[in-house]
Amino acid sequence: MRVAQKVAIVTGGGAGIGAALATALAAAGARVIVADLDEAAALAVSARINADHPDATVGAGADAADTAAIQGLIALAEQHFGPVDLYFANAGVVGAPGLDATESDWDLSLAVNLRAHIRAAQLLVPQWLDRGEGYFVSTASAAGLLTQIGSATYSVSKHAAVGFAEWLNVTYGDQGIRVSCLCPMGVNTALLYAGQESGEPLGAAATRAVVSAGEVLEPAEVAEIVLESIAAEQFLILPHPQVLEMYRNKGADYDRWLRGMRRYQAALLAETR
């Protein structure tokens, strides 16, 4: 799909990858609803983009995991630009490290990292089927293909996000619905350093694991790769190509991979002490 003249919604658009995606989409000729739980951040990103691309975006405060809020974003897009062509389920949360994560921690991670995707698809896919076209882009993580040292809530919810994106692709891919799943490793955003700032050994180890596993990319670099992948209608978007080899190694000998991850975690924890 070419994004020029298309209408997109980007959640988590107030910073990081979401802001970069909104910027890249507008530069490519799309019209974008920039949504974020932090309304001021969404409005600031929208204003910055519109300064270079007049009337290309509208900013909005919204909880990406709330069905009524998603409905509001769809209505806002239709009011300003027309029917939604692309939905970027990009909002995400890290979650607490270890088994000390509370019921509330689990609820939040599953709501934002998974259920937000499901709820958006439930609203948009029927419309897209009627129109014969639509594009759903899920921001998961390399943790959704591999794992995440530290946060069980993040690892589990991102695995589930990958699984849901796969299911959407298989179920509707022959009916005009395109689906891509973004699975980066380290990206220079606040989310990357949240574990380190938590003060928890597992949290610090998680940040160190991602930073040491490969190059930390800038959000704009990731956004460029995403748009190239959308043009190619490619399902798995891997800004860090080495993730594919890691994924293959995991599948080739699961027990060996688990032993290696335990050794890696032990080394990281020793470094944080």
Characterize the structure shown.
With 273 residues, this protein is α/β, with parallel strands linked by helices. The chain has a single domain, classed as Rossmann fold. The protein has ten helices and seven strands. The chain has helices spanning 16-27, 39-52, 67-80, 103-131, 152-172, 194-197, 201-213, 219-232, 242-252, 254-272; strands at residues 7-10, 31-36, 57-61, 86-89, 134-139, 177-182, 236-237. It has a seven-stranded parallel sheet with strand order 3-2-1-4-5-6-7, with helices on both faces. Strand 1 (7-10), helix 1 (16-27) and strand 2 (31-36) form a beta-alpha-beta unit. Helix 4 runs parallel beside helix 5 (152-172), helix 7 crosses helix 10 and helix 9 crosses helix 10 (254-272). It is globular.
What structural class do you assign from the helix and strand content?
Answer: alpha/beta
Task: Please report the distance between the alpha carbons of the first and last residues.
Answer: 49 Å
Q: What is the strand arrangement across the widest sheet?
A: 3-2-1-4-5-6-7
* Number of beta-strand segments: 7
N-to-C series of helices and strands: EHEHEHEHEHEHHHEHH
Q: Biggest β-sheet: count, sense, barrel?
A: 7 strands, parallel
Number of domains: 1
In CATH terms, the superfamily is NAD(P)-binding Rossmann-like Domain
What ranges have pLDDT less than 50 throughout 5 or more consecutive residues? none
CATH topology: Rossmann fold
Number of H/I helices? 10
Q: Report the β-strand fraction as a percent range.
A: 5-15%
Mean pLDDT: 94
CATH architecture: 3-Layer(aba) Sandwich
Helix content: 55-70%
Spatial shape? globular
The level-1 CATH class:
Alpha Beta
| Rg (CA only) | 18 Å
